[in-house]
Amino acid sequence: MIITQNRNTEHDSSFRKGEIKEGTVVSINDKDVVVDIGFKSDGVIPLSEFAYSSMPELNSKILVFINELDNGEGRLSLSKRKADFIKNIELIKQANVDGTVLPGTIRRRVKGGMIVNVLGIEAFLPGSQISLKPIPNLDQFIGKELHFKVMNIDEEHRNIILSRRMVLEDERSGIDLIQSSSGQILTSYSTYDISSINHQNNLIYYDREYKRDQLERTLTGYKKKFGKTLFPTLAEENILDYYFELVSPEHLSQTFYISNVNLNREKSIPYIFLRPKIDGPRLESAFPHGLCVAFKGTLYQERTGDYSMTVYDFVVVSQADRKDFELEADVELVQKKVPQFRKNNMLSPEFVEILQRKPISLTTMDNLNRWLSYLDWREEMVRVSAKGIRYIDQTVDEKGVSFKVVCQDKDAFIKLIPSLRFDDIYAYEPEYSSDEWDFVINLDKSEGSNQRYRPRPFTLGSYVEHSEIKLDDLDLHVVDLPKKWAVPVAFRVSFDFNEDDQDIINNISNNPHADLKSFYADVKSRIHSNGFLAPSAIGDVALIDRLKRNLNLFTMQGGYSPNLSTYLFDISKAQLPKRALTIDHWKDTNLNDEQKRAVQVMCSAPDIALIQGPPGTGKTTVIAEAIYQLIKRGEKVLLSSQSNTAVDNALEKLAQIPGIRAVRFGKEERLDKDLDYIASNVLNFFYRILSKPSQERLTAWKSEDKRLKSLEDWLSDAYRILPEYRNESEQNNHLKSRLHKAKETKDKLDKLKIEFEQVEETKSAISKWIDYTSGSLDFTDIDHFPDEIIDDFQNQVIAPVRSILAQSGIDPFLGWTGRSYSSPDELLLVANVGMDRIHNLEDFKILLNSEYNRISSIPDRESITDSTASAKIAYLENKLDELENQMDDLDENESKYSELDRERRSVRKEIKQLRESGSGSDMSRFKYFFNISNDKGQRSIDVLDSMYKSKSSIMTVLTGSPRKAGLALLKKAVESIDEILVEYPKLIRKHQTECRQIVERISVDFNHEALIASRGDCVKLEKLLEESVSRLRDIENSMHTEIISYQDSFNTSITLTRPIPEELESLVDQASGIANELRFKLSDQSEFRKLTSPIMDKWLKVLSKPNEEDVGTIQPLYLKNCQVVGMTCTENPKILTDNEYHYFDTVIIDEVSKATPPELIMPLMLGRRAVLVGDHRQLPPLFREKELAWEEVFQMQNEDLSEAQDAANGGSNQETVLTQENYDKYKTMVTASLFKQYFELADPQIKSSLFTQYRMHPHIMDTINHFYENRLVCGIDNPDQARNHGLLVNNSQCEYLAPNKHVVWIDSSQDPCGRKYYETKMQQKGCYNELEARILISVLIDINKRLKELNQTKSVGIISFYAMQIRQLNILLKQHISKHGKLSNVRWRISTVDKFQGREQDIILVSLVRNRQTVRKSAKAFVAQFERVNVAMSRARELLIVTGAKDMLADYPVLIPNMDREGYTQSYTYKNIMEQVNLRGSFYPSSFIISPEEWKSMANNKDGRNRYDNRKS
Fold it and tell me: What is the pTM of this model?
């Protein structure tokens, strides 16, 4: 290993990647440790490398390994871990050479052996090398720190082989480690096997007389504290002597665990601590269960060189097995009565040397020293900041609280201005100062028995302004002022109301009947008429003192957690559960699987359990269920938190579970006075529980009396109503019968009427048919063909006509189907066509005769042509003659002759075709009549067609030609037509006669007057029946109402829609039976009730309100016997001991991420096991709760000091301990969450995460989910409905709020007029953004207006990272309310994000404020701290509205730590949120909320009052 020193050189060529250099720590920030190694730029080491080791101090020298010469940001990338690794490898190699013993911790078991961590490097310990003998269970060694030698190093494969066996063999072979003069091996040991000491050297000489009085007082206090459970056999003897005789009887040895509790590395002599081992019934019965009393002392070296021990204190600790840093030895305690020592003294120099190298642990020692150093610095901060100013008078009005103050001179006041601006200021009573005029903190009053009776200092809000006034304005004379004040001055200093009072003002403002004047008077009464104004840090004195005492007690293993000192700074050493607890019965059956597992982890972990609960995942629900399960097991639980709100929320859940006795301890002025379980109300609550059985018994008796009375009243009504119901029911049935008969008669008459109308219609139709057949009526006037005459017309007309004409192939009624017609209209049409044909037979007959004569005249050899063809042939023959005559006049050689010859041949051809075609006639004239076939199946029209087309020949003449058949058909047709012309009129007349007879035959006897009368009867009866039904319904409704009102008397659920007498009688029988049973029961109880009712009435009267005697006697008993106690981590534990709560089985600490280790020590020491619940991805512990990033604090502090010096004409610098050095030294330590370290390193068996959230709509959850690597899921059923805010808000620009919009972003980069807009910075007071403040107030007004229209009320929270913005919002809201009245439909709260953690609202409005004119994106600014963004954006249930400057925030990087691995991920959080919002159409410019005209009006009227003239709530 080559380690080179820094060289001051201008050349960087000497620096190589992979080298180890020595460097100087120049600064420490929240990400890196910055080191100067002489390179052209500083190098950085990730802060995570120091998670398991102490942080280097500024200006200290360290060795570093060069990873890269440029990490991408122009800096060296360095690693201390790699440098240490290389250095430790060299040490291991050296140990392999010279046989040096090395300490190591066994981490886990692997195949063939164990893995051991030696100097931060993993090595292999073979199973055969663990002990001298085979070990059946190797798991017992896991987590233990032992000693090893290096057997072998395989550099090629980077394997290190260890042996513990070699160390044990050396010891057995006689190597006396204690007598070793080299010290090398002793230095390497961190534990020591006491068996190697000579068993005769077991005496410890001690002195208990030096501080006897103090020791006796301490033991007496413990005896009083624990009562009979401590030293139950103590009689009259001295308690100090009794104790030592108990733990170490004279001349007898007792096993003790011995340890060194000295935390000062520079002090060589250890503080020795002896804890008796409880190994038998004698000691077990002497101490409270699980506890014992140990003692500590200092060592004094005698002339002989040996040491004796002076006992100076006792500590109650938990019983536990030997810890790694303890030595177990059988010891005989011997009082030191003479100067010289006897032999066999255990406290030899060698033994003391062992103890010197065995403090609690180096890690614990370093951390505790660092915390004690921090608390010393905090105390110095209090001392430096404990500068106040005397006030003579105070005024309270709508502007806030103002004071008239006096000071020795103006310079002194100017120096106080930064504190008044920057610090949280309180108004203290005069007795808080030991000087009447100059504020000198009275530390004797910081804590003590009288403190609880002294009024608490009054908290003021933000500083507003100051102005100088004349001394004459004060109610005193200059001569009354101190003479040492050479030039006294007076000022008026004004402050806002504090946050709690501002909330009250907001609520009063929303109450139209409330009076603010009385509230102002109340505030004034809570502030002493005169006193001092000073920073709130003064109140930290008592807290710091308690924290110091807790840390010191912890160093002595004080408290009741057996393994706290083991795992406090190394969570890997926490014990793991042997098996997970099985829970058979869940109090809350709605828990999801994650929550159930978390409860199981909380109840199963032996030492500590860790529960991570992101926003809305039900941490409080899980805590309540776990406490219920723990109490079922008989445990006593302390519920603690860094905030009062978290404790109250969890206890409020528990108050709903019967059988749990809970109490809330704390300063009453900080507690909600309406809570049942605070100490002042708990007796009332207890009395309500005690009175419940008696109250329930009396209520039950009264209920039975009432029930019997109800049944009797109901039966009386039933007996009255039942006959009435029966009579009305019989009348109703009679009316129904009459109505039924009347309806039957009416129905018959209605049917007869229909028949009559049908007959009349038929008669009319037949009459029209007669007129039509007579020719007096046109066919179009006939409506239909009456069915009654269809058969007659067919038989009397159609059949005879068809019979006569059938032989000639003629059917005028072709298509007639008779009764099988598809429709009467179709049949009527066929009849009309047939009759038209008959009427045209006369003309057709003439045509047939003419054609018969013409065809008969044509020779048989010639074709028959019709008249048209004949005319054309004649024309063509004439043309042919003309052509031949022309040709005769021409020469055959002439061209004209040839043309005429071609034309002649064409004419001849056409004549031939006409004659050969035989196309005799126009067949369309015959198709209308010749439409049927003959007996041979040949259609008549086809016969005629063949006649015209055929040519005659000898054969056709001999055999019969088509012409002959056609002529015969024509002749037969003429004959048939002649017969029809004679018969048809006769047939029609006969048919008409039959039709007239039909008309005369059909008739219906119908009386129209009878029908009218029948209908009238039905209407009358229906009305009577309706009246009867109405009377029945009234009776039924009356009975139904009675039954519903007396349903409890029936002791069952009765559904009675329309009871009939049988059902009613059944209920009467049931009621009678129940009433008889009740009469018997009450009669049987009457004597007992007569005796006990007065006693219980008196008992309830006694319990109605505790009297003074009860408060003095019973309340203390109740307070001492609760199963659950709630209090904050920083509360004075004396309140617990005063109520005899000394230790708990389980301590549950909620919101643990915000607590520092000193704040956690107290509750952790009070319980045998601990449960830490929190979310390390929300706000961490605060270094100092201010609104600006610390780099800005330094800058503005310097500005204010310069201003103060200028004003004082060159005054001296103000003293301050808030330096860069102190900041670097303590900030990382304080703001690093212990819970975060625990959770990331703990075994999965003792930790659990909740990722199902039930608070937010999924769109709101999306804004924070990337902080949890998108592991959050929404557990709300139908979130669109369950988280529907229902707001629809329109303005002139758009609909910017709608039920489907759950996240809205309003861009404040530009004002409504389109101009760039920037934040306003107010020196050390912080910064604010007026545009954003006005936007949010406008939105709040719009929301209130819409809720008023909906007649709804919602809770609205307004959050900002900066207190100045909160003040600006309050001012604007006050202005609006003073002009336009209350916002009655919103319950609003305005606060910083720090005060909002643990709260939730229906609607959250967030102002991000920051928009610098010169953009400097500090990673330390609040807007860059992902925890703050997470908390701010996760408070809303239904609607989140954010206003922020896109121009600044869109590319603002936010570093987010990885969840399951080291390192950070750089995220553009705001850009991601804005993109999500924009995709959902909810991203708006400021002009969409405030119009340009309104904004201009505000610019003209700076107080903004005109701004809201058009936006009334």
Answer: 0.61
